[in-house]
């Protein structure tokens, strides 16, 4: 039996993402498309006269605790990211068919129906107009 397994299911991991990433945002990590679940949020400054609710970090680290600081890319924070599933996104495009490829633009951190970095494939359109996208297993990049 293998004794070097870290996570039985590596489809949901805490990984570095861009600093402005929020829950529901598309991301690409190591060539794998994913969707941010919960991102690290620092504690808010106390406001006199108010009780501050604790920030929900989803057990993600700020990165300051890392032993290997040189491994954390500049301008990133940790977030819980899902690398599997079907997700609803607002994507521009009128003539969309089942199975159409959806691409990620790393410059604008958006999704479109044209591009170079494969993110997933259209499997449906919701009643709210958002496209349902099945994440690709890799971006092909």
What does the model show?
By secondary structure, the chain is mostly beta strands. It has a domain at 12-40 and 71-135. It is built from no helices and 9 strands. The strands form 2 sheets. The protein has a 5-stranded antiparallel β-sheet with strand order 5-9-8-6-7, with no helix packed on it. The radius of gyration is 17 Å and the shape is globular. The mean pLDDT is 83.
Notable characteristics:
single chain, 141 residues, mainly beta, five-stranded antiparallel sheet, four-stranded antiparallel sheet, 9 strands, 0% helix, globular
Tell me roughly what share of residues is in helical segments. Answer: under 10%
Give the rounded overall mean pLDDT.
83
Strand arrangement across the biggest beta sheet: 5-9-8-6-7
Radius of gyration: 17 Å
Distance between the termini: 33 Å
Question: What is the count of helical runs?
Answer: 0
Task: Provide the structure class.
Answer: mainly beta
Largest sheet: 5 strands, antiparallel
Low-confidence stretches: none
Query: What order do the SSEs take from the amino end to the carboxyl end, as H and E?
Result: EEEEEEEEE
Query: How many strand elements?
Result: 9
What general outline do the C-alpha atoms trace?
A: globular
Per DSSP, what share of the residues sits in E-state strands of 2 or more residues?
35-45%
Condensed summary:
The chain has 141 residues and is an all-beta fold. It is 0% helix and 37% strand.
